[in-house]
Every structure is written in structure tokens, then in C-alpha cells.
């Protein structure tokens, strides 16, 4: 193997390890995604979001930041469309937008409505993490 090729491989490996770990991107809520994550024992945060909701818009930057934060790399964030997922929100007992529900596997570890403080939102999400 040539010296150039060895150097190229080492550089690529270095880039791979230098890239920070990131949480999973926010995904649209589906019952199937929630059930699969719960069955696998994963940490999940369900965000009941409505675009017209000022509280939801205040929560969004914190939740979006958690999706990029390595501290939350094991957290699956599912964004439920409050206006269009009526059966899903009924099944989860969601009665108002801006509801956040944390799960560790199938166990609900916390639920909040209307909190906008970033530290409280992060604490709720961390309650789902082992």
C-alpha cells in the first residue's frame, strides 16, 4: 500500500472520529414509530405541536437544539401534528397542544403542558434516558 493511500485512509478515519455524535433528527409522529421505539426500550419525547400555538413556537428552539445535542443522542423525538392526528393524540391522552411526553421504553417518565423553560424541557427529556 502506498504512503499516499495510507495517509488518505488515516485522514478519513480521523474525520469520522472527529465528527461529533448528534441526536436523531426530529421525526414525524406515527403510532408505529412510537411502538417500535417502546418495544426496543428506547428513550422517546413526544411533542404535540401546532404551528399556530405561541407556546409550541417557544418550545421548538429548545427541542430543535436537543436534536443536535450529543447529550441527547439516544433520544428519539417524535413531533405529533396536533391539528391532524386526532386519533393519535386521543390514544396518548393529549388534550392540548404544547404537551410533551417522555417515555423510557413503554414507561411514561414525565408529561408537561405549556412549559417553555429550556432547563425544564431538557429535564423532562432526560427523565426518559437511562
UniProtKB/TrEMBL annotation:
User: Which Pfam family name is an example for this entry?
Assistant: Thioredoxin
- Tell me which SUPFAM superfamilies the record gives: Thioredoxin-like
Keyword Signal included in the entry's annotation: yes
Taxonomically, the superkingdom here is: Bacteria
What keywords were assigned to this record? Signal
Which positions make up the signal peptide?
1-23
The residue ranges of the Thioredoxin domain are: 20-130
Q: What's the protein here called?
A: Thioredoxin family protein
Originating species: Dyella flava
Amino acid at each position: 500500500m502506498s504512503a499516499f493511500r495510507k495517509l488518505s485512509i488515516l485522514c478519513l478515519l480521523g474525520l469520522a472520529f472527529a465528527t461529533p455524535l448528534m441526536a436523531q433528527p426530529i421525526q414525524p409522529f406515527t403510532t408505529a414509530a412510537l411502538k417500535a421505539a417502546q418495544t426496543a426500550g428506547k428513550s422517546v419525547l413526544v411533542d404535540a405541536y401546532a404551528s399556530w400555538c405561541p407556546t409550541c413556537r417557544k418550545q421548538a428552539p429548545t427541542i430543535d437544539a436537543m436534536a443536535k445535542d450529543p447529550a441527547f443522542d439516544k433520544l428519539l423525538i417524535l413531533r405529533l401534528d396536533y391539528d391532524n392526528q386526532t386519533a393519535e393524540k386521543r390514544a396518548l391522552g393529549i388534550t392540548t397542544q404544547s404537551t410533551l411526553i417522555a417515555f423510557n421504553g413503554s414507561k411514561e417518565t414525565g408529561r408537561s403542558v405549556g412549559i417553555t423553560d429550556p432547563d425544564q424541557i431538557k429535564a423532562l427529556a432526560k427523565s426518559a434516558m437511562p
